[in-house]
Amino acid sequence: MPKLKKILVIDDSKPVLELLKRKLEATGRFVCYGAGSFSEAKSLLEQEIFFAAIVDLELPDSKNAEALDFVISKNIPCIVLTGTLNNQIREQISKKWIMDYIQKDSIESFDDAVALVSKLVYFKAQKALVVDDSPL
Questions:
Q1: What is the pTM of this model?
Q2: What does the pLDDT look like over 36-87, one tens digit per residue?
Q3: Which of 9, 23, 52, 98 gets the highest tally of CB atoms within 10 A of its CB?
């Protein structure tokens, strides 16, 4: 049996944490760790090594995406969850090194997050050759 990949979910909503935990673990490929705040996430990040993270953009102790920036600084692939998505937020997070962002507007959005994490498992095992005539 393959080793389960550790996923960190950071969200201040207990129902969101439980739903994502249930959906991720139901795949049989992941074990999910939940953090309801940036400080809880920092503690978990000191104890464990994570394959990927799903991070709420705004937390009570991280109003300006500090939690996201911290997870990114640990070189952990991130999927951003946000309750509000407008041009300013889209521009802010598009400058960050993230996999994707998902608006928490329906139950299907959580399925999208699980699908992205599942795709990451596949793509991390792949190699790509990029050929271009541009030096950049």
A1: 0.85
A2: 999 999 999 999 999 999 999 888 898 888 999 999 999 999 999 887 777 7
A3: 9
CA distance 11 to 86: 19
pLDDT of residue 68: 92
Whole-angstrom CA distances from 127 to 2, 20, 53, 122, 130 are 21, 29, 22, 11, 10
Name the residue among 8, 28, 5, 21 with its Cα closest to residue 121.
5
Question: What are the φ and ψ backbone dihedral angles of 128, each rounded to 5 degrees?
Answer: -130, 145
Mean pLDDT of 112-133: 82
Q: Yes or no: say if 83 and 66 are a contact pair by the CB < 8 Å rule.
A: no
Q: What is the pLDDT of residue 136?
A: 67
Nearest to 75 by CA among 99, 91, 58, 93: 99
Distance (Å, whole) CA 10 – CA 17: 7
